[in-house]
Amino acid sequence: MPFGLTWQSFFAKKRFEDLSEQEILALAISSEEEDGEIYATYANKLRGDFPASAAVFDDMAAEENGHRRRLIELYKKRFGNFIIPLRREHVAGFYSRKPVWLVENLGLDRIRQEVEDMEQQAHDFYIAAAARATDADIRKLLGDLAAAEAKHQDVAEHSLDEHLGEGARQTEDLASHRQFVLTWVQPGLAGLMDGSVSTLAPIFATAFATQNTWTTFLVGLSASIGAGISMGFTEAAHDDGKISGRGSPIKRGIASGVMTTIGGLGHALPYLIPSFWTATTIALAVVFLELWAIVWIQNRYMETPFLRATFQVALGGALVLAAGILIGGS
Question: What is the second-level CATH architecture of the domain 11-165?
Answer without folding.
Answer: Up-down Bundle (1.20)
